[in-house]
Amino acid sequence: MQNWYQIIPKNTGLSSYIWIIFCLLPFFFIFRSSSLFEIIFGFLMIILFFLSYRLSFISHSRMVYVWVSIEMVISIIMTLLFGYIYFALFLAFFIGNIQRLSGFLTLYIVHLVTTVGAITLVFVMQNEALFPQLPFVIICLIGVILLPFTMYYRIKREQLEDKLEDANEKISQLKVIEERERIARDLHDTLGQKLSLIGLKSDLAGKLIDKNPQAAQGEIHDIRQTARTALKEVREMVSNMRGSKLADELLRVQQILQAAEIEFHAEGSPELSNTPLLVENVLSMCLKEAVTNVVKHSQASVCSIHIEQLPDEVHLQISDDGVGLSEDKNLLKGHGLQGIRERLEFVNGSLELSSEQGTTLTIRVPKVILQSKQEELE
Hints:
Layout: H1 16-31, H2 36-58, H3 63-82, H4 87-96, H5 101-124, H6 134-211, H7 213-240, H8 246-259, E1 263-267, H9 277-298, E2 302-309, E3 313-320, H10 329-333, H11 337-346, E4 350-354, E5 359-366, H12 373-377
Parallel strand pairs: 1-2
Antiparallel strand pairs: 2-3, 3-5, 4-5
């Protein structure tokens, strides 16, 4: 529904200026009357109609049908006395906002029958005020027939789109929860038994260190081997997890920027070498968050992405020519920057922010040194 102070209907396909004319026209028809009583009566009818019209929008009970009935009576009176039929369009718009099917159909049929009946009666009475506006009367009748259904199904479609969006969001959340549970199960199955074994052997080594140092040394050796095996399995599990490749994410952000009509420039190769998938996944998520900030907050016309690979680390720079960021600490924590920092801390990365002539984010992530084969064999 509309706000209580709105008089002009929205999203009807008609210009707001046309609705303003419909609001002013009844005064023109009233002033054409010769009787002072008719003028005063017409003013009262207009005030009562718009008062009932607004009350019908802010009511959430059966009173809606009372206000609509009053509006129909006023519309018929204005048509019969002054030849003004355009209140019927306001009613047609409001009826389209009623989403209860039985109420919608009842009001639609009653409104259509009363409007056609009033117009027919005016022509039978040969009211001269209605003949010059015959083309507009026909347009008004078409609006009374089509406008309620147009508004009704438009609102239905918007509600279904909102429900679909909510459902997709819930599905995404469920997928995240499911993935977290899967990772938790994998970690438990991978580490649980071995950590328990390490704990038991540590207790045993502590008891044997004074009584039998040689046996204690053997237990310590087993602890070292178990720890290395667990570490290897965790690394394999992380490497096998499905992550987002930087090259794929670069293509997605390019499409997002093009859809937002922001010019896109890229330098450097997104194909990272000797970089674990976990690190590349973190870089991809940071790139996605940074570009989202550019689209939502920067008001930029150009966005540039620079990727540089060094022997021991990867540099990712995202810059735009937008409005920049304030130095306010609370603001700098927002816009997803805190999430980027938290992700980078996980892989010992860093974030630098510059806000001169736009905004520039510089991300540095070290390449993880994998365990050597010699260590694995020890």
